[in-house]
Amino acid sequence: MEYRQLGGSGLRVSALSFGTATFGGAQFFKAWGSIAGKQARVMVDRCIDAGINLFDTADSYSQGLSEEILGRSLAGRRDQVLISTKTTFPMGEGPNDYGSSRYRIMGAIEASLRRLGTDYVDIYHMHGFDAHTPVEETLRTLDDLVTCGKVRYIACSNFSGWHAMKSLAVSERYGFVRYVAHQACYSLLDREFEWELMPLGQDQGLGTLVWSPLAWGRLSGKYRRDRAPDTRARLGTANVDDSGMTEQAHQVVDTLEAIARESGRTISQVAINWLLQRPTVSSVILGARTDDQLAENLGAVNWALSSEQMARLDGVSAKPRIYPYSHQRNFTQLSDSLVD
């Protein structure tokens, strides 16, 4: 396993990490997976054996069940791994059961620590930006949690560019601990991340923790022009026209398949390997509903696509830019974009 610096911090994380949104299967997350008990332990064991040192969860994943299952699966091995969890999204019907206020965060971290069976979290994310709470309040609270040892590093998730930059500026102004990473959606079908968030990450030392690297399974090879969706897949109950498989998406999968044949790899492995070669990416979070899926995706490391193969994937997955990125593209001598 390859290990990378997490943004501008001194923390080293495995290039692949394991996401546990499939643990629990309560409510909305039932469609993602219902992994628990022995199956969860087997998957965690496989990850540790492969060299993965970062496990990601959130309080809102199955209303805390994911954290509980992960905690039990790591029992006796806490000091061997890094745990990342998150808060912000609703955990109840009350007026203070969501958001990033001091009240919410202080209660949420205690609940997460209890469910995880640990006394500290390695990386604590704000799962989304709370526009109703002053940024100063959120960051002062997180600074206090780092100072008292309950949290070691902080990160954000699903922020816009200005959300992240304002937060970093507030941390600098007041001397608060700063976000070291941004957990964001990024894949060959979701390249909008490159327009602003990627340049911001490189400029400000924010590492990227990628979620949904296979675009909700669309890049797994399961969704093809000539094949009915697998009803066991996450999007398998959708009609072909409703699965998000546009003509460009099909072309991306066709190119992935061709490169997979050339490389002796699978379509999923090629899609993940492409991400591992992109700027700012510290770790790609794998989600899996079966041990076979996990084993396949773990094969995305310890090899690299050629520059020619990367260029083919870049070209087939390119998206038209919207303003102001389309306008900025006309003045390449002024641009700070990391990709074309």
Characterize the structure shown.
The protein has 340 residues and is α/β, with parallel strands linked by helices. 45% of the residues are buried. The model is unreliable at 236-241 (pLDDT under 50). It has helices at residues 37-50, 65-73, 102-116, 135-147, 161-174, 197-204, 247-263, 267-276, 291-297, 307-317, 325-328, and strands at residues 3-5, 12-14, 16-19, 54-56, 82-87, 121-126, 151-157, 179-185, 207-211, 281-286. It has a single domain (3-328), classed as NADP-dependent oxidoreductase domain (TIM Barrel, Alpha-Beta Barrel). The protein has an eight-stranded parallel barrel, surrounded by five helices. Strands 1-2 form a two-stranded antiparallel ribbon. It is globular, with a radius of gyration of 20 Å.
